[in-house]
Amino acid sequence: MNWQEILNLPVSGPGIYQLLAIGDRYMGRQWFRYDGYGRGAIHLTWSYAAHTAAARARAQLVEIMSGL
Fold this sequence. Notes:
3 helices, 56% helix, 6-hairpin_glycosidase_sf
């Protein structure tokens, strides 16, 4: 999966877990920045905090993979 495909992943439902799995595979277990919500927020039920954390994780993953 390339960064353009990652950019199109949803930040709700299974997309949250896909983002985590992709980040773990490409960057190792500690790739997600703890920035207020932290990685743990992604594991919440589909709440606003989880969606926000997933959106931040997706943006960071795209940034890392695209070299921006």
